[in-house]
Amino acid sequence: MEKIEELFANMHIVKRSSEPKEPTYLLGIDTSNTGQAGKGSIVAVLCSNGSIRIYDKETLNILREFIGHPGLLNGVKFANSCDNVYSASTDGTVKCWDVRLASEKPIQLFKGYPSNAFISFDINCKDHVICAGTEKVDDDALLVFWDARMNSQDLSTARDPLGAYSETHSDDITQVRFHPSNPNMLVSGSTDGLVNVFDISVDNEEDALLTTCNSVSSVSCIGWSGKDYKQIYCMTHDEGFCWWDLNHLDSDEPITQLSIQDVREILNVKENNLDYLIGGLYHEKMDKLFVIGGANTGRICFLSCTQSGLTHMASLQGGHTATVRSFCWNMQDDAFLTGGEDAQLLLWKPGTGNLEKAFTKKDSMKIASSVHQRVRVHSNESCKRKKK
Fold first, then answer.
1. pTM for the full model?
2. CATH code at 75?
3. Residue 175 lies in a domain
């Protein structure tokens, strides 16, 4: 544990992206798995102005920008086997872009059902299936599925859904995450407070639902962790944290490893307060889950997660000047990318070699955004219907 704590504590800024033409929130970050672009991998960043920016990871120079959704963008994700990047939108589509092409047109278009507004999505580890979660319309909140495999008609034909799950969530589906190595395992989270685990290889929705966990609050983030990724974690819009172990589904042992209603109230952070949670980071080599949070001043906090609770390990300061919205960790070279409401994309690495030498603290570029308006206040009553 001392080694990883030292690693986090010794993170320094290696690169900072150039000033954007217009300030935008950086809402999501993903890196390619192929490393085929020049010196290394490439980075896709979801921006609040409706664009997807593609960066060279080592230089943080912008390679190109895609602007192709009339609705609000929600999520950005690279394919696992190539440098195609996907995005979902409230316009009811998921689009696939070839980052090698400076084209304004996507190479694949996936259409939802009428009135669908997608606010979450993911693609499975085999790049075969896409799943997107919708806002609630009337009484329906859907998980919509498509076959993502390429064919010769993709450039000219929009692809219709394979089908949808409609019975397992009663409100906006804010998060969808496929298992890192099992293409049929899927977890979803919603503002109804429920976190559902599915085996999509099963024919019908009722039988596909393996278990339902209850966060008792509106879900903001979910992810997989643990050996063989048999655990799931969840964060809520009021900064709660839950952690469940799916190994205990067929035993009498409780699956809940940890449940904290508001992390801000119990956490002792050395450098003042923790204001929000950003996401989770499972370190495979250490078999250890870490939680990433931050302060409104731009400070980033690394928290160690155990069954006894969350403890502060290290903080990064002096980089961002406003709320950090997104991050991406590369296990191969311990690179840490962060983006936030100050419109900055930063690359952090441990050690002291070849670091950016001097920074003048930048003024905050914090801007008004419609993103905040999309987080609705929900009653906890609907969250208490199912508990595990």
1. 0.88
2. 2.130.10.10
3. yes
